[in-house]
Structure formats: structure tokens, C-alpha cells
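New to this. Please check this fold:
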Amino acid sequence: MDLEKPVPMLMQRVRRPRTPEPEPEAVQQSEMPLGPVPENAGTAPVAKPRPARAASMPTPEPPQQDSLFAETKAGRAPESAGQMASPELPDPENVLVITAVSTRDEGFPGAGLYRILKACDLHFGEMDIFHRHEDGSDSGPVQFSMANAVNPGTFDLATIDGMHTPGVTFFMSMEEPRDVMNAFECMLATAETLARHLHGDLLDENHSVLRPQTKEHYRQRIRDFEMHNRSRRNVSRA
């Protein structure tokens, strides 16, 4: 898969109905010529019927395809996943996103995906997606979450062992964990582990290949966020 091209498309296709074929024109026959019949002439020739015009077949259009991330905006997690337990949605500028895309046609197997998530201490919870909490187990501030990259972005534990998905999206709000940098490193390590064991590639929030420069850019965003928070706290104390 060439990840420099647009993000892979869903396999489900929506076909447009074909335009009804036009009715063929009726065959027309010329009338017999009027007037006397010339000598030594047989039956007056009858004009050959004009052949029916072949019905024009419309050129089939390529089937429409839904983008894997049709509902995902740059810098934002899927809508269903972004609504975490927090009563207020985070500022999109403060959300970091990493997407893992399968390099195999069948996608990520749900059974393998679930095993890796449990090994990395992610728990199924709010919004029917997976979360990793700062205090371990399933309590404390959320470090990061993982949603299905295909709408509606959720999982079903009853059927996860038999499912496949072309991709998953990891996302975190810098406003949630106490140690933002540690939360990001945990999210990155989990995404890299999943991609390595399940044959996937990592993309950034703009659906481009996640490169070392992008990872450092994310870290710089965290530093800027924390510096801004410290400055704001200092102003409020003054």
C-alpha cells in the first residue's frame, strides 16, 4: 500500500442506479412510388427499411467509495470516539491523533487486536471504545483512547474475535492526563506495537505517514501546551 496516496478506501461500494435504456426507434418503411410502372419492370423496389438505431448504453461510472476517514477531521478523533466521559469536549488543537492502517487486505483481526490492547493495559469502556488510564486498570484520568477507524468508531466485545477492521485511531487530549508527555509516549508505543505485530503502518492526524519529524512535532506541541498552562497559572496567582 502506497501511503503517500490518499488513505485506503472502504471495501463496501455504493452503486448508482443505471439510467433506463432508451426505446429503439420504430422501423420505418418507404411508401411505394406513385404513377405508372415502367415497362419491363418487375415489382417496384421497396426502399430498404432503415435499421433500428442501437440503444445507446450509458458509460458505467465507477462505484462511489466512502473514505475510511470520511468523518474524521484533521486533528480530531472520530466524532463518536471524541466524546469521552468528560462533560466538555477538548479543544481540537489539544488533541493528538495516530492512526494505524492495516497493510493486508483483510485488515486487522479483532482477536489479535484485543490481545494487544489487553497486554498494553487498555480497557473497554465509555463510548464502546478502549481507554488507557493514568492510574492503571480502569480508573484515573484517561491517558489516551482507541476507536475503530470505520464509523461509527465503536467495538462490540461479543463479536470482536471474529471481526476485521482496516484501521484503528489512537487519540488523546492534552487536557486530560496529569503527565501529558508520558501519556503520549505510551500512546505512541502502543500504536507501534500494534502496527509491528499486526502488519500495519502509522499515519498522523493529516493521514500522512508518521515520520520521526512528526513525532517530534507532537512532542513540541506538548511542550508548548504545558508552557502555556504554566504561564496561565502564574498569571492567575499574581
Observations:
- Strands lie at 9-14, 64-67, 95-102, 108-109, 123-124, 130-133, 142-148, 164-165, 167-173, 200-203.
- The helical segments are 79-82, 110-119, 180-198, 212-237.
- The longest strand covers residues 95-102.
